[in-house]
Amino acid sequence: GADGPRALGILERHAPAWLAQIPGLLVASRQETFLRLAQGASQTRLLNELALALELITKDRLLVLVLEDLLWSDPSTVAAIATLARRVESARLVLLGTYRKSALRGSDHPLWSARNELIVHERCTEVALGPWSRTDIATWLDTRLENRTPASAAHDSVLVEHLHSATAGNPLFVRSVFDELVATGAVQLTSGGW
């Protein structure tokens, strides 16, 4: 984008080990130089470079970094998240991560211990999303419909009830079950609704 050259310059000066991981951003004549700089870079160095680069990139502009399904993250990603959250230096950075707490609770996943530490030290806020009600599911179905007609409400109420009972309102499962029903042809979009 428009800020690409500025961000690239920051990475070149302050995060060369990270830039070496993205060879597509480097001109061929400079790849070897950055690869040499990145060789043997410790995790501490990588984390410090990332934090400084993001601090500088966000000096004049807000950056929202969204990481979904953190349950699939590796220990290095968790370390990067924790490092960014622990920093006291000012940055216009919002880091938003999603995970299913029920799948994480009590596990030996590094995210669980990092989450607990960050909450205790007030370095993050956890926002628990509750299950969807039948009305929430109906509203979500409405967003998937074009040209909705009042006659479709009766048909949709059966689908809403099925989705709610099959998923207990878990939004991730609502979407997964719905997508599976559509993929198998069990549910189809007609002019009157689902």
The rounded Rg comes to 23 Å
Helical coverage, percent range: 55-70%
Number of strands: 2
Oligomer: single chain
Specify the number of helices.
10
Order of helices and strands: HHHHEHEHHHHH
Q: State the strand order across the main sheet.
A: 1-2
State the end-to-end CA separation: 40 Å
List low-confidence stretches.
Answer: none
Label this structure with key terms.
194 residues; 5% strand; elongated; mainly alpha; two-stranded parallel sheet
Describe the structure.
The chain is mainly alpha-helical and 194 residues long. It has ten helices and two strands. Strand 1, helix 5 and strand 2 form a beta-alpha-beta unit. The radius of gyration is 23 Å and the shape is elongated. The model has no long low-confidence stretch (mean pLDDT 87).
Secondary structure elements and pairings:
Elements: H1 4-14, H2 16-19, H3 28-38, H4 43-57, E1 63-67, H5 75-86, E2 93-97, H6 101-104, H7 110-120, H8 134-144, H9 152-167, H10 171-183
Give a quick rundown of the structure.
This protein is mainly alpha-helical and 194 residues long. 56% of the residues lie in helices and 5% in strands. The longest helix is centred in the C-terminal third of the chain and has 16 residues, at 152-167.
